[in-house]
Specification:
By secondary structure, the protein is of the alpha/beta class. It folds into four domains: 176 residues, Rossmann fold, CATH 3.40.50.12160; 104 residues, Transcription Regulator spoIIAA (2-Layer Sandwich); 120 residues, 2-Layer Sandwich (Transcription Regulator spoIIAA), CATH 3.30.750.200; 56 residues, Beta Barrel (OB fold (Dihydrolipoamide Acetyltransferase, E2P)). A six-stranded parallel sheet has the order 2-1-3-4-5-6, with helices on both faces. Strands 15-16-17-19-18 form a five-stranded mixed barrel. The chain has a three-stranded parallel sheet with strand order 7-10-11, sandwiched between helices. Helix 8 links the parallel strand 10 and strand 11. Helix 8 runs parallel beside helix 9. The protein is globular, with a radius of gyration of 24 Å. The N terminus is likely disordered. Bound molecules: S-adenosyl-L-homocysteine (SAH), iron/sulfur cluster and FE3-S4 cluster.
Length: 489
């Protein structure tokens, strides 16, 4: 484990400061100590500048990245910042993603933009964190080309944010603190949720699967599960705060609990979570097909709370490519699994992720993928062009596919995906289904936007006072991937 500050850091040496000014060693008490210290810095600076300090957290990645942003926001709020969506804020933190190169490019784009703002507003502070910061080449690039950045940290020490924020205030130089890995999980830190009525919950961190194209195991570290009692306590607290929908988060939730002192399966955890009063809907992300158990299918089938949606990344329909990807299932195994799920839970919506252009992939392989899309009839699929990630086994494979070839396969796949998704969504026309009202429609404020159990969106007229409630909606008009409806009498 590496724990370093590049800048000069004021640390209280033993015997130097009065007892009460020494940070506690244990967590989370240590972070609460630093939150208080940050409050003083924030207060002083806002007095000096003559306005309350604002902070903005910008999320680039997946649901886990978004959940981390809520934790960062929680600390910032406690430290006395007013949160805002505007990057004009006094403090901006970019929570980065590096799963595909376009995610990295977006971050560099934002940095260029924020630099121009900082030139006009020299007291503005900028921080970077998240998956991209776990790559040494990125840190080098920022140190040479983006020297105005004040604070950089990675994914493993995010729980130390308050401490790092303090270090930033007490240093003129860039503060960098990157850990290579950790098995530490710190509970009970503040969180500021984006929605009052729904919440993500980390059930595990990291990934041990090492799919050959994927950078996540390198930037998120080894798989570790939170203890069920901590997860259930968090869910009970959320329910007491009015949360009705939860989403359990992990890179591979189906392997949850394996390495705990007292092992427990994901299906067992779901059974326990279901018992909690006030929680009406339970979702989870992501399921790896190789670990999806019959027990899980049974728990889903017999549950009123677990949503009728399963995101089951396929990645490729070609067994040869799946093997090279280290996915550890074949085309036939995936098809059999999807069939089993659909026959046991007929109203389920199945969605997936697919990569096109993996090294060595031919037109025939893409046809195999299209064949799976036709057979499984995905309700939706996220399709990605393969992105070469330095450090992964696939990056050094021969036969990297030229961009134009990959794009042609991608386009063919996409039109097939859109066709099946449209047909799948159309089968719901005329039904009445329960929808959780999430927000006022951003294009037409007379409409509300709700989400069905199967994750499909419906827009319908209604009062904003219904936000956070579950209401019955008639699905009148199919607009391709969503519905327009009206509230059922
Ligand atoms: N843990 C999840 C996925 C996390 S990454 C799972 O296993 O399903 C989300 C998606 O990004 C993946 O499902 C994959 O389709 C895509 N992805 C990951 N690495 C990629 C790469 N190098 N190029 C293109 N897409 C990639
Ligand atoms: Fe990446 Fe595979 Fe882990 Fe998902 S399961 S995060 S695709 S290595
Ligand atoms: Fe991106 Fe990290 Fe999530 S690389 S997809 S933010 S785990």
């Amino acid at each position: 484990m590496e724990d370093r500050f590049d800048g000069k850091v004021t640390r209280t040496a033993p015997g130097e400061a009065p007892m009460q000014d020494r940070p506690p060693q244990e967590e989370p008490a240590r972070q609460y100590y630093f939150i208080e210290k940050c409050r003083q810095h924030v207060l002083e600076e806002s007095r000096r500048l003559g306005h309350p300090l604002t902070a903005s957290v910008v999320t680039f990645g997946c649901q886990m990245n978004a959940r981390d942003s809520e934790k960062l926001s929680g600390i910032l709020e406690r430290a006395g910042y007013a949160l805002t969506d505007s990057e004009e804020a006094d403090f901006v933190i970019y929570n980065t993603c590096t799963v595909r190169d376009n995610a990295n490019q977006r971050v560099y784009g934002r940095l260029g933009f924020v630099h121009s703002m900082k030139k006009k507003n020299p007291h503005k502070r900028v921080a970077l964190c998240g998956c991209m910061m776990q790559e040494p080449s990125v840190i080098e690039k920022i140190k040479t080309s983006y020297r105005f950045v004040n604070l950089i940290f990675g994914t493993h020490n995010i729980f130390k944010f308050a401490e790092l924020l303090c270090a930033m205030y007490e240093n003129d130089r860039m503060v960098i603190d990157i850990w290579k890995d950790t098995d530490q999980i710190v509970e009970e830190l503040p969180v500021s949720r984006k929605y009052p009525f729904k919440s993500g919950i980390n059930i595990m961190f990291g990934c041990d699967n090492f799919c050959s194209y994927c950078i996540v195991p390198y930037v998120r570290g080894r798989e570790r599960s939170r203890r069920p009692e901590d997860i259930l306590r968090e869910i009970r607290t959320l329910a007491a705060q009015g949360v009705v929908e939860i989403m359990l988060l992990g890179q591979n939730v189906n392997s949850y609990g394996r390495h705990l002192e007292r092992p427990i399966s994901f299906a067992q955890l779901l059974r326990e979570a279901e018992q909690i009063d006030g929680i009406e809907r339970i979702r989870f992300m992501t399921s790896h097909p190789k670990d999806l158990s019959d027990e899980l299918i049974e728990v889903m089938a017999s549950s009123d709370k677990i949503c009728r949606h399963l995101h089951l990344p396929l990645q490729s329909g070609s067994t040869r490519i799946l093997q090279a990807m280290n996915r550890r299932y074949t085309k036939e195994q995936y098809l059999a699994l999807a069939e089993k799920i659909r026959s046991r839970i007929p109203d389920i919506s199945l969605t997936t992720d697919i990569i096109v252009g993996f090294p060595g992939e031919t037109e025939a392989d893409v046809e195999e993928t299209i064949d799976v899309v036709r057979k499984v009839r995905f309700d939706n699929a996220f399709t990605f062009l393969y992105s070469r990630r330095t450090g992964t086994p696939a990056a050094t494979m021969e036969d990297q596919v030229p961009r134009e070839d990959a794009q042609a396969g991608f386009d063919r796949l996409l039109s097939c995906v859109q066709e099946t998704a449209r047909e799948q969504v159309a089968r719901l026309s005329g039904q009445t289904q329960a929808a959780l009202v999430e927000e006022v429609n951003d294009r037409d404020p007379s409409l509300l936007t709700g989400r069905l159990s199967n994750n499909i969106i419906v827009h319908f007229p209604g009062s904003p006072s219904l936000i956070g409630r579950i209401v019955n909606v008639e699905l009148l008009e199919n607009r391709g991937f969503y519905f327009v409806g009206r509230m059922a009498p």
